[in-house]
């Protein structure tokens, strides 16, 4: 239960709706009890009237007596109908307050969780799978809503109806009350166990279903590989096996589900039989009238659903508590990228790393070892190195996706952690290695980082990234939709749209992380020359495998296994005849042989 306390702030926020819900529950229950009493009165009246009817009939007043008798029965009937109608109206109001309250909290919770997710660092996303993140904001929140809505509604109903009905039953006949209620605790316990079994099996089905959807999703996204490797029949067999598992689990659930109503019916039946038997004995001994038996049968039926719901509510609350624990786990995650000072300043662009070492917290891999370099504003730094040498890690640290374990990173001479993170990121244009574009128009993708989108800026960015011509050749130009239901750009086009997105925000520091790998050297030259113009007086960092990308940089560092092994410009590095020179020779030779 303790994890659910976190929801109290929401219950407090919507206290008005809850209070109204309680009032409506009390009123609706009053309209449940009164008809039962009316039924008792009506039956007792019928029995009594019947005993005096015969003498009256013999006295010639039969017709008059019959008229009065029918009138009374008719009035009782109408009254019972009116009560049922009023009860229905108040039940509607209960749902309009309590269930609506739960929907409002669900909405608030989803927003709170999403907002918190957005604040968490990249390391959090590395530790937790996307499926898990999605499950907590959808399925877990839904389970918690079941507690806030139906569980609170039925719980309140139980708390109000029970004392009302039972105290009334006791005043009518304590002995009969005891006998009539005897089977109800058994009903509640059985429903609790059956419900737990249902939940357990439903969860297994859910897992089986999500496994099935992941399988299908992967098969469809990898359909090209699947077909190319002629694995269709294997895929069909695997699917059949996964579906079989789902079928078996569904059948097991149906078996338990089938127990739910028979158990209720059987135990209510037992209650009714006991009431009729014990009540009958009391009628024979003249302690009560026939009407009491009918009234008690109605009470037993009235209590059936609340008692059933006790078992059901308990299991909902348990599930909600488990879900809320999972939600709290993420809500308690803290952002560890903190600012010592929240300096917000326009960056001029001097970037410096001093003896920086970094170990990825999740994998324990040391990606950087004592890396040092300095670039002044307006300069270009080229970072070259083999795969896994730590190039992208430098970009990650400059963007403050992670903080280094030791050493200092400075921007404009100030330690990077003294600057406001969002302000820093806003002034950096980052083109990641693995291009990600949103399912939106090309224009909106390019304008992603700018506050006020301006078509001229978007077009200019597209021209500088050498993708303008491609875009306007699409029938819808910049309005062309990307993503699943849109068109598919080629690898090189995607990279260039991603570059356009970074330069459209006119960054003070531009980081290109191996983002020219899918374009030919001619396009690479066009883009680099354009960048040289637009990045005048601003800093560029170009990470690449290809020497051709870094060659024009003012300063080049060569990384190997997280260490800087060579540093200089193209000329000095060529003169050193080290790794860089060797790489240059190899790559230019390969380029020539391809060109030939
Ligand atoms: N998010 C991460 N979590 C854990 N380890 C990581 C992470 N990213 C990279 N690494 C590891 O850190 C090392 C350096 O990776 P990095 O991505 O910086 O290399 P890179 O030089 O950019 O390589 P490539 O040219 O192939 O992109 C690698 O051994 C890699 O496995």
UniProtKB/TrEMBL annotation:
The chain crosses the membrane at residues 12-34, 68-94, 151-170, 176-194, 259-284, 296-317. Its main location: membrane. Residues 19-319 form the ABC transmembrane type-1 domain. Residues 351-586 form the ABC transporter domain. Keywords: ATP-binding, Cell membrane, Membrane, Nucleotide-binding, Transmembrane, Transmembrane helix, Transport. GO terms for cellular component: plasma membrane. It holds the Pfam family ABC_tran. The keyword Ribosomal protein does not apply. It is a multi-pass membrane protein. GO terms for molecular function: ABC-type oligopeptide transporter activity; ATP binding; ATP hydrolysis activity. It is found in: Cell membrane. The keyword Coiled coil does not apply. PANTHER family: ATP-BINDING CASSETTE SUB-FAMILY B MEMBER 10, MITOCHONDRIAL (PTHR43394:SF1), ATP-DEPENDENT PERMEASE MDL1, MITOCHONDRIAL (PTHR43394). This is ATP-binding cassette subfamily B protein. It comes from Algoriphagus yeomjeoni.
């Amino acid at each position: 239960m303790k994890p659910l306390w976190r929801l109290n702030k929401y219950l407090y926020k919507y206290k008005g709706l809850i209070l109204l819900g309680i009032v409506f529950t009390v009123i609706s229950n009053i309209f449940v009890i009164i008809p039962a009493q009316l039924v008792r009165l009506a039956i007792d009246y019928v029995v009594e009237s019947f005993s005096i009817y015969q003498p009256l009939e013999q006295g010639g007043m039969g017709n008059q007596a019959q008229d009065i008798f029918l009138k009374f029965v008719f009035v009782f009937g109408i009254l019972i109908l009116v009560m049922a109608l009023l009860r229905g109206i108040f039940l509607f109001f209960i749902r309009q307050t309590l269930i609506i309250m739960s929907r409002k909290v669900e909405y608030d919770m989803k927003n709170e969780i999403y907002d918190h997710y957005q604040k968490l660092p990249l390391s959090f996303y590395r530790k937790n799978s996307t499926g898990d993140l999605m499950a907590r904001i959808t399925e877990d929140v839904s389970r918690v809503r079941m507690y806030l809505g139906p569980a609170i509604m039925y719980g309140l109903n139980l708390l109000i109806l029970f004392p009302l009905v039972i105290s009334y039953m006791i005043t009518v006949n304590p002995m009969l009350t005891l006998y009539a209620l005897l089977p109800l605790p058994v009903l509640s316990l059985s429903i609790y166990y059956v419900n737990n079994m249902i939940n357990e099996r439903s969860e297994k089905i859910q897992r089986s279903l999500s496994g099935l959807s992941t399988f299908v999703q992967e098969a469809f996204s990898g359909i090209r590989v699947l077909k190319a490797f002629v694995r269709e029949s294997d895929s069909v067999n695997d699917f059949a096996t996964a579906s079989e598992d789902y079928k078996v689990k569904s059948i097991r659930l149906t078996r338990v589900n089938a127990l739910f109503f028979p158990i209720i019916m059987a135990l209510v039946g037992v209650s009714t039989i006991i009431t009729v038997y014990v009540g009958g004995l009391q009628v024979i001994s003249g302690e009560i009238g026939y009407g009491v038996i009918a009234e008690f049968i109605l009470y037993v039926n009235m209590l059936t659903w609340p008692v059933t719901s006790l078992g059901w509510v308990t299991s909902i609350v348990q599930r909600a508590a488990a879900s809320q624990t999972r939600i709290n786990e993420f809500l308690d995650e803290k952002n560890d990228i903190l600012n010592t000072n929240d300096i917000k300043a326009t960056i001029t662009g001097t970037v410096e790393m001093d003896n920086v070492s970094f170990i990825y917290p999740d994998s324990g891999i040391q990606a950087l070892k004592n890396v040092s370099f300095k670039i002044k504003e307006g300069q270009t730094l080229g970072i070259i190195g083999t795969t896994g040498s730590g190039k992208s890690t430098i970009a990650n640290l400059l963007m403050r996706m992670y903080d280094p374990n030791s050493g200092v990173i400075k921007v404009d001479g100030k330690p990077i952690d003294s600057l406001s993170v969002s302000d820093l990121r806003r002034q950096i244009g980052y083109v990641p290695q693995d291009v990600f574009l949103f399912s939106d128009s090309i224009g909106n993708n390019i304008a992603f980082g700018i506050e006020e989108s301006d078509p001229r800026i978007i077009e200019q960015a597209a021209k500088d990234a050498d993708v303008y011509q491609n875009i306007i050749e699409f029938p819808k130009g910049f309005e062309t939709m990307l993503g699943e239901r849109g068109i598919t750009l080629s690898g090189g086009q995607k990279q260039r749209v991603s570059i356009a997105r970074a330069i459209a925000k006119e960054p003070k520091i531009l980081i290109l992380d191996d983002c020219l790998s899918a374009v030919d050297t001619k396009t690479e030259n066009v883009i680099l020359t354009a960048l040289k113009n637009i990045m005048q007086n601003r800093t560029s960092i170009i990470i690449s495998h290809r020497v051709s990308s870094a060659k024009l940089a003012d300063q080049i560092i060569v990384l190997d296994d997280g260490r800087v092994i060579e540093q200089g410009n193209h000329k000095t590095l060529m003169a050193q005849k080290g790794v860089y020179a060797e790489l240059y020779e190899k790559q230019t030779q390969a380029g020539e042989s391809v060109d030939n």
